[in-house]
């Protein structure tokens, strides 16, 4: 048998023509790749369908809960309990507002109205001296009440932080909403303003608020949102003398933002958190990277708020963190020099 005839394969039953083994292997490989591609395409299509169905179902559920929440709010009366706020007001609110804001990508008018109404009710509750009506009384309640309160308070902090990041001075509704969000952040992170706390519960209330302050400074993204807000503020040019004064709402937002930005430093240097070095480094790094690197920072802020940024309790940990970072870089450079000496062994 000749050599070309020997390397050919007969496709009996399909065709009388004979092809080479290499052509047959290539054909089989192409068919295998095609089947693999079809399987991956089908799997991708099913995944996209599942994601899209979940998106549609989640959005429909969020809109339905929002409608029910609006109906519930129309029946709102001033004599409500803290448990009602936690279970009936905040639980559905946090569900639909986070889903709708994530899917829409921006704050719609309806969501803005819902957040304003919710923030007003919570602020009114926090200012109530009656422990049964004060939302923050749950922070010193049972173990389950404290757990739920901490979860809801952290979600409120994250929500208010995201509102600060999308601040728009040309939108009056966003201006009012941001002002309410800053007031709520200040109220939640200051246990001294919780009128419900008795002397026996003061230590537990202080600990709960300090945990929220540390969350605000390290995990909520507050400093990043603060930078975005400050970058939107006006600042005078070198030859500009007349600077437009900030309105009351804008000044309230800026003052509250500075207060909240400095509050983690006060907590870290308190007696309870003297040993929290990791928290101090984490907060200080976020503060330095997000705030101290803002161009024209002092010129953008009201002059009355600038001295607070220069206080030793704020600048000292910043300088200490920078010095430690510089020392680590010097040590790394020294180790690298010892490992890779210059020519001649010196």
UniProtKB/TrEMBL annotation:
It catalyses: S-ubiquitinyl-[E2 ubiquitin-conjugating enzyme]-L-cysteine + [acceptor protein]-L-lysine = [E2 ubiquitin-conjugating enzyme]-L-cysteine + N(6)-ubiquitinyl-[acceptor protein]-L-lysine. It is an enzyme of class 2 (transferase). It comes from the Eukaryota. GO terms for biological process: protein polyubiquitination; ubiquitin-dependent protein catabolic process. The keyword Transferase applies. GO terms for molecular function: ubiquitin protein ligase activity. Keywords: Transferase. InterPro entries: E3A/B/C-like. Its EC number is 2.3.2.26. This is HECT-type E3 ubiquitin transferase. It comes from Punica granatum (Pomegranate).
């Amino acid at each position: 048998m000749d050599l070309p005839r020997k390397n050919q394969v007969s496709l009996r039953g399909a065709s009388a023509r004979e092809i080479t083994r290499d052509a047959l292997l290539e054909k089989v490989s192409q068919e295998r790749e095609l089947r693999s591609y079809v399987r991956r395409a089908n799997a991708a299509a099913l995944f996209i369908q599942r994601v899209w169905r979940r998106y549609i179902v989640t959005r429909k559920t969020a809109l339905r809960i929002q409608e029910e929440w609006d109906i519930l709010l129309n029946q709102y009366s001033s004599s409500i309990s803290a448990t009602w706020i936690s279970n009936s007001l905040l639980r559905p609110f946090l569900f639909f507002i986070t889903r709708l804001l994530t899917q829409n990508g921006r704050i719609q008018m309806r969501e803005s109205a819902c957040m304003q109404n919710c923030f007003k009710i919570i602020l009114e509750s926090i200012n109530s001296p009656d422990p049964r009506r004060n939302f923050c009384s749950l922070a010193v309640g049972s173990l389950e009440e404290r757990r739920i309160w901490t979860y809801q308070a952290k979600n409120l902090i994250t929500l208010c932080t995201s509102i600060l990041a999308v601040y728009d001075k040309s939108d009056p509704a966003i201006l009012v909403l941001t002002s309410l969000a800053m007031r709520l952040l200040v109220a939640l992170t200051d246990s001294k303003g919780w009128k419900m706390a008795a002397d026996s519960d003061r230590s537990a209330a202080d600990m709960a608020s300090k945990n929220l302050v540390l969350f605000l400074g390290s995990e909520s993204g507050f400093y990043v949102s603060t930078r975005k807000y400050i970058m939107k503020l006006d600042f005078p040019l070198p030859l500009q003398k007349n600077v437009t004064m900030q309105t009351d709402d804008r000044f309230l937002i800026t003052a509250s933002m500075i207060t909240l930005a400095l509050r983690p430093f006060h907590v870290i240097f308190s007696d309870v958190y003297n040993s929290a070095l990791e928290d101090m480094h984490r907060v200080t790094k976020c503060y330095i990277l997000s705030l101290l690197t803002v161009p024209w920072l002092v010129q953008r802020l009201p002059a009355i708020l600038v001295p607070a940024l220069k206080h030793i309790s704020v600048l000292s940990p910043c300088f200490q963190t920078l010095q430690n970072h510089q020392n680590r870089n010097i040590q790394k450079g020294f180790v690298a020099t010892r490992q890779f000496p210059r020519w001649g062994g010196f």
